[in-house]
Specification:
Largest sheet: 6 strands, mixed
Number of helices: 11
Strand content: 5-15%
Radius of gyration: 19 Å
CATH class of the largest domain: Alpha Beta
Strand order of the largest sheet: 1-3-2-4-6-5
Bound molecules: iron/sulfur cluster
Helix content: 40-55%
Number of domains: 2
CATH architecture of the largest domain: 3-Layer(aba) Sandwich
CATH topology of the largest domain: Uracil-DNA Glycosylase, subunit E
Order of helices and strands: HHHHEEHHEHEHHEEHH
């Protein structure tokens, strides 16, 4: 690597670190070999992008994936008493997520509601009961899967999370995905699917089809709260979940 390239690379790396610091991260997991390659200018080293790809984040996170539980706990500690976005003002609790760190299926919703905010647990209200029943009908237990949300604090009056809130908080769920590295992700509802897939397509069009997030199959389906209001569409979500179970075989 030429000296100029190396200087530019270090500049880019600095910018990336500042970008993450502005988002509130106190550290970013990076493989030691990457640091060594940058410092040594090794041509065999991978060259980080100015904003590391999701794949890069996932790969780097593998450094501590030997103990996913510890990695999740570290992430929770890092989030701390987060005030990085305006949702902090109205929340009672941060709802980090829960479940099996080695889960094959990860369910991702949009954000906590009233009950979740009070109990600091995801999907525990009426919509949560529906999700729990769905999981049981699949022959699994809630403890077998991992459940999280795109934003970790309750939006006021259960409104949809806003763009700036999603942008600030979603790196946390992305890091949860990187740590857990599930075999399938199920996106519950529009916000979750559109955020993960960087899409503006309606959930009614996305659902029922597999997409990919960092080489992990993603199945968008309806949010359980929508199914409570539109019980006739429950069978569509059931169909989507059958596809998920097929994928896991
Ligand atoms: S929603 Fe996320 S970024 Fe915003 S305050 Fe809560 S934890 Fe922090």
């Amino acid at each position: 690597m030429r000296m100029n390239d190396r200087a530019e690379l270090i500049q880019e790396l600095k910018k990336t670190m500042e970008f993450y610091r502005e988002l509130g991260f106190e550290y970013v997991p990076v493989k030691r070999t990457h640091i060594f390659n940058i410092i040594s200018g090794s041509p065999s080293g991978s060259t980080p992008d100015s904003h590391p790809s999701r794949h890069q984040v996932a790969e780097d996170t593998c450094d501590y994936s030997m103990n996913k539980e510890i990695a999740l706990r570290d992430l929770k500690n890092e989030i701390g008493d987060c005030h990085r976005c305006k949702l902090a003002k109205g929340r009672k609790n941060i709802v980090f997520g829960e479940g099996k760190p080695e889960a094959d299926i990860m369910f991702i919703g949009e954000g906590p509601g009233r009950d979740e905010d009070i109990q600091a647990r995801p999907f525990v209200g009426d919509a949560g009961k529906l999700l729990t029943n769905l999981i049981l009908k699949l022959g699994l237990k809630r403890e077998d899967v991992y459940i999280a949300n795109v934003v970790k604090c309750r939006p006021p009056n259960n409104r949809n999370p806003e763009e700036d809130e999603i942008t600030t908080c979603s790196p946390f769920v992305e890091r949860q995905i990187a740590i857990i590295n599930p075999k399938v992700i199920v996106c519950l509802g529009k916000i979750s699917a559109q955020t993960l897939l960087r899409s503006k397509v309606a959930i009614s069009k996305l659902r029922g089809n597999f997409f990919s997030y960092d080489n992990i199959p993603v199945m968008p389906t309806f949010h359980p709260a929508y199914l409570l209001r539109n019980p006739r569409d429950k069978w569509l979500t059931w169909e989507d979940m059958q596809k998920v179970m097929e994928k896991l075989k």
